[in-house]
Design a protein that fits this description.
There is one protein chain. Strands 16-17-1-18 form a four-stranded antiparallel sheet. Strands 2, 5, 7 and 11 form a four-stranded mixed sheet that branches. It has a four-stranded antiparallel sheet with strand order 8-9-12-10. By secondary structure, it is mostly beta strands. The protein contains three helices and 19 strands. It has a domain of 74 residues. The chain binds zinc ion. InterPro entries: Gmx_para_CXXCG (IPR011750).
Length: 247
C-alpha cells in the first residue's frame, strides 16, 4: 500500500484548542526585506533556518532588527550570510536564522504550530519521535521565558524535499534582480508523486516553503502522544506527468 501524506496545519480560528500555549518570539537574526529597483516590489519571505548560527558573523548586529533595505544593501548582507547556509540553499529577503527567542504563555501540548510552517514539539514529544525512528528531525531548542518549570520546546527545522504538483502552483515570471515571483497556490495543494521524499517523514516542499507535509508514519507516532493543536489534511499525490484533474 502506498504511503499516505498529510498537510500539517494549524486548526482554524473557530476550532476549540486543547492547549492554551502561545508564543511571542522571533528567530534571532533575519535578512532585511528588499526594495527592488527592477520589479519595484517590496517584499520579505518567511523562510526560517533555526539551526543556522550567525553569532560569529561580523555583521550579525545588522540582522537583529527586521526592516526593508534597498537591493544593494540586501545583496551585500545576503552574500555575507550565504556561507552559513546548507549547501544548495540560497538566501531570500526576510530569511530568518537562529532559535526562536522571546516569551511563552500558557501550557503547550506535544505538538503545536504557530504558522503552518513553524512546528514546535515538547521535549517529551521529541524524545518519543526520536525513539520510534521518525526521520528528518532537526530540533532547535527555543529560548523562551515564561514556560512552566521543566517544559522545553523545540522548533523542528523542516527539510526541503518534494514538490507541490505543478498544477497546484501558478507562477509568474521571476525577477532577475531580487527573485520575486508572483505565486498562487491552490488552497488544498497536492503533491508531485514523482518527487516524494522517501528519506524523511516531515518536510516542506521546495516550491512551497510555507507548507508542512508529513507522512502516515509521523501522524501515527504523534497519535500516541495524545491531543495536540495541529490538524492533518490528507493530500492527494499525483504523478507529475498527469495533469490536474484533482482539485
Ligand atoms: Zn525584483
Amino acid at each position: 500500500m502506498p504511503m499516505r501524506f498529510y498537510q500539517l496545519q494549524r486548526p482554524g480560528p473557530s476550532t476549540p484548542r486543547h492547549w492554551s500555549g502561545s508564543l511571542s518570539a522571533e528567530h534571532i537574526w533575519s535578512l532585511p526585506g528588499v526594495e527592488c529597483p527592477t520589479c519595484h516590489e517590496t517584499w520579505s519571505g518567511q523562510f526560517a533556518l533555526p539551526s543556522v548560527d550567525l553569532s560569529s558573523l561580523p555583521e550579525r548586529d545588522l540582522l537583529l532588527e527586521p526592516r526593508v533595505e534597498p537591493h544593494t544593501e540586501y545583496a551585500r548582507l545576503a552574500s555575507r550570510v550565504q556561507p552559513f547556509l546548507p549547501s544548495g540553499m540560497t538566501s531570500e529577503p526576510g530569511m530568518q536564522f537562529g532559535p526562536l527567542r522571546g516569551t511563552a504563555h500558557g501550557a503547550f501540548g506535544p505538538v503545536s504550530a504557530r504558522h503552518g510552517w513553524e512546528v514546535l514539539v515538547t521535549q517529551d514529544a521529541l524524545r518519543h519521535l526520536q525513539a520510534v525512528g521518525i526521520r528528518g528531525l532537526v530540533p532547535v531548542r527555543a529560548e523562551l521565558q515564561g514556560l512552566d518549570a521543566g517544559v522545553v520546546l523545540y522548533e523542528l527545522e523542516l527539510p526541503s524535499r518534494g514538490l507541490l504538483h505543478r498544477d497546484a502552483v501558478l507562477t509568474g515570471p521571476q525577477c532577475p534582480t531580487c527573485g520575486w515571483q508572483e505565486t498562487r497556490i491552490s488552497p488544498e495543494p497536492w503533491l508531485d508523486g514523482d518527487a516524494l521524499p522517501h528519506d524523511v517523514d516531515i518536510f516542506r516542499p521546495t516550491n512551497g516553503s510555507t507548507y508542512t507535509f508529513v507522512n502516515a508514519r509521523f501522524v501515527e507516532a504523534l497519535a500516541a502522544l495524545g491531543p495536540g493543536d495541529v490538524t492533518f489534511r490528507e493530500a492527494n499525490v499525483v504523478p507529475e506527468s498527469r495533469s490536474g484533474s484533482v482539485h
